[in-house]
Protein: Succinylglutamate desuccinylase / Aspartoacylase family protein
Organism: Dyella marensis
Amino acid sequence: MTTPAPYPIGTPGTPWGPAEVAAWLSRQSKHRSYADEVQSKIDALRARFDVAEYGRLDYAPESYPLFAIKTRHWRDDLPTMLITGGVHGYETSGVHGALLFVDRHAADYEGRANLLVAPCISPWAYERIHRWNPSAIDPNRSFRENSPAGESAALMQLVAPLRDKVLMHIDLHETTDTDESEFRPALAARDGKPSAPGEIPDGFYLVDDTENPQPAFQQAVIEAVAKVTHIAPTDAKGEIIGSTVVAPGIIRYPLRKLGLCAGVTSARYTTTTEVYPDSPRATPEQCNEAQAAAVCAAIDYALAHR
């Protein structure tokens, strides 16, 4: 068995301090433009939807506005559906799947539901194709009171007035090969823990809430996505990324306990999508389509089972 090489930053077994975080940050560089690839698409939607700047991340010398897209004719008597993407900036289809949904499908729900879409929660990480923010903090473990992540705190402030009015929240993610080659080793190094090799599932899957399981809701989303791309099989242990599979393509996490984005409201229906963009059986376009299909199925189910 091959022993993994030590992560290039820090001392094995010792959690990072400020010097190690600074060394990690010095290795990060921009690979794409939030303004060109995301903000421009949001701007193109302004003619049909309301767009609000709900926060700004100041990471000198750069500053990133955070945008939410909303139903133009918002009605307090209608259920609210929350769609979030780009909590992990490197998970591309989470961002562009959310934007695709708004462009192609959001108008279908006019007069039936209020939609609130935050398509790119972590723009700094989007540009650097990374999981963390500049402080080496994972926003998707930081949705809790007094959050250390500005990305998480800004979204929580946005949804706070609606927290008990949201019927459905779907959070769009990806599981990639770099989870195994870069991000899990980096996490282990940051926390001073050993890095254990894992297995990346080939296909789409969902994360339900351990504390509020909604199996029929999850199944409806899986069935819709299966028409677009393949569903992840279990591994030899009957698991997906170390978690027991409770139904084809479905695992469960305690969302609020882990500080995950999908736990920020009191929504009856919650789920986290996971697309596998590195699969030889899927294209980037399919991944975006799968995310949009998941959103439509989630909203449709929630409306039919209020």
